Amino acid sequence: MAKQAKNTICLWYDGGAEDAARFYAETFPDSSVGAVHRAPADFPSGKKGDVLTVEFTVLGVPCVGLNGGPAFVHSEAFSFQVATDDQAETDRYWGAIVGNGGLESACGWCKDKWGLSWQITPRVLTDAMAKGGDVAKRAFEAMMRMKKVDAAAIEAAVRG
After folding, report:
1. Distances (CA, A) of 81 to 3, 28, 34, 44
2. In total, how many domains does the chain have?
3. Are residues 109 and 154 both part of a single domain?
4. Domain range holding 35?
5. Which of 48, 70, 92 is the last residue in one of the domains?
6. How far apart are CA 32 and CA 58, in angstroms?
7. Closest listed residue to residue 88, CA positions, set 157, 9, 152, 134
């Protein structure tokens, strides 16, 4: 049995934890599904034998999905921020999330079909923001007009 991580992100789902974990593992590198634990008895949102928790990793980050039922839903207060190296990688992750029942939002944010928020962020944007001053201002203003971030438009804004 593998040693449990000291700190694990626990994500609450309304019955979709295993499907979500498998989607993340198929979509992102350094991602996998580990143990699937079934409920030893009936619980408020399920029956004995239903999937209760799923251990998984997303881009190297240890997580556990808990099928806790409809009492709590995901919000933008938590998101995975995924740094991308180029437009093709940005398009691939954005397309996978939105194309699998997700929703586009603004400024590089989208939600998967389970309601979890993702920031698909090209490094060109975070690099521009880190420079500060006019470069950051131009990159920020360009990003504010976008849904999926367009790396070429950010690069053009950085150049002025």
Report:
1. 26, 12, 22, 32
2. 2
3. yes
4. 8-70
5. 70
6. 7
7. 152
Domain match, 86 and 139 both:
yes
**113 burial class (0-12, 13-18, 19+ CB within 10 angstroms)?**
middle
Tokens of 75: 């919000």
- The amino acid sitting at 4 is Q
Write out the chain's pLDDT in tens, 160 residues.
567 789 999 999 999 999 999 999 999 999 999 999 999 999 999 999 999 999 999 999 999 999 999 999 999 999 999 999 999 999 999 999 999 999 999 999 999 999 999 999 999 999 999 999 999 999 999 999 999 999 999 999 999 9
| Residues 65, 87 within the same domain | no
Domain co-membership, 142 together with 154: yes
Q: Do 113 and 144 have their domain in common? A: yes
Task: Quote the CA–CA distance of 54 and 64 in Å, as a whole number.
Answer: 5
Q: Is residue 2 situated within a structural domain?
A: no
Residue 158 CB coordination number (10 Å):
18
Please tell me the distance from the alpha carbon of residue 23 to that of residue 33, in angstroms, as a whole number: 9
